[in-house]
């Protein structure tokens, strides 16, 4: 699924190729909706699109209206679903959706917004009904919604997952994380994995020595998943993980394994607060044993916690 940065880049790439376009943004919701306030969709004048604003029930109608707006060179607000003049377009969930079609959004604004997000900094995008857009680095305090005549939406960087581990579990986690759309990177001493990782085009870093473990770097939108069978690697790397701003740190293993892990770290001087940051046993599916199920279970927990981190009070 295209994220905001990819949608903004889609429009700027289209503009460089001589195409005109429109950024469509959800600015109001009533009743249930498959997308949140502030979600975007992009439409180019050749009919190509990026992003979705529903589960496929209104995209065709939105694209058609965006093409009319592009042809007329006029930004406009529209409503779909309950209370809409388009009586033949209904949202299956029964709700209503207000959108703002911003025609020919300024390329420099979209580039700046995409650059902030690709650099893993939150961005606050602001717009009005006549097509004026601006962007600034987010302070983290912005609330998505209307303020007088301008609509502002805060976008956080996409989910990033550092997968530290070996064997089939690590490979399965990388495959699922990439399929989900997260930025995933493997850190592993397992040379048998690197061929498969190369074939799939995944990012990876080779871990060379337990005695000289790599220093990890993770921001507050990054999760760190430990999937080692050799638990000595965990003990070597977990202190570095705890030194990051990662929103989630978890390690594979049973309750007994997790208790032994915490004891070993405590003996290294890790504080109770640090130990409490380590999730274990990981996953939403109890007692997962096969690699694919374990990876799915752990990824589900990570996505759940990421949603809690980035969810705003006005999100749906």
UniProtKB/TrEMBL annotation:
Pfam family, one: XdhC_C
Domain XdhC- CoxI: 16-81
Boundaries of every XdhC Rossmann domain copy: 162-302
Protein name, as recorded: XdhC family protein
Source organism (scientific name): Sphingosinicella rhizophila
């Amino acid at each position: 699924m295209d994220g905001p940065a990819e949608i903004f880049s889609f429009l700027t790439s289209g503009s460089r190729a001589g195409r005109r376009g429109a950024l469509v943004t959800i600015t109001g919701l009533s009743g249930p909706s498959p997308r949140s306030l502030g979600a975007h969709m992009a439409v180019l004048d050749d009919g190509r699109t990026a992003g979705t604003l529903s589960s496929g029930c209104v995209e065709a109608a939105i694209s058609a209206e965006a093409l009319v707006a592009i042809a007329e060179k006029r930004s406009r607000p529209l409503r779909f679903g309950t209370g809409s003049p388009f009586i033949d377009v209904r949202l299956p969930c029964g709700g209503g959706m207000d959108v703002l079609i911003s025609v020919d959004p300024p390329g420099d604004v979209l580039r700046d917004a995409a650059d902030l997000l690709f650099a893993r900094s939150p961005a606050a995008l602001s717009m009005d009904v006549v097509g004026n857009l601006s962007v600034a680095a987010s302070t983290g305090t912005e609330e998505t919604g209307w303020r007088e005549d301008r609509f502002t939406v805060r976008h956080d960087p996409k989910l990033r997952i550092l997968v530290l581990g070996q064997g089939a579990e690590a490979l399965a986690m990388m495959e699922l994380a990439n399929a989900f759309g997260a930025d995933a990177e493997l850190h592993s001493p397992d040379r048998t994995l690197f061929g498969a990782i190369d074939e799939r085009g995944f990012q990876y870093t080779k871990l060379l020595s337990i005695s000289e473990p790599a220093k990890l770097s993770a921001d507050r939108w990054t999760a760190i998943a430990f999937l080692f069978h050799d638990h000595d690697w965990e003990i070597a790397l977990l202190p570095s993980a705890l030194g990051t701003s990662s929103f989630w740190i978890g390690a594979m293993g049973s309750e007994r394994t997790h208790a032994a892990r915490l004891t070993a770290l405590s003996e290294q001087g890790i504080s109770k607060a640090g130990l409490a940051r380590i999730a274990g046993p990981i996953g939403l599916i109890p007692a997962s044993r096969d690699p694919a199920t374990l990876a799915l279970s752990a990824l589900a927990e990570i996505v759940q916690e990421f949603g809690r981190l980035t969810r705003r009070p006005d999100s749906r």
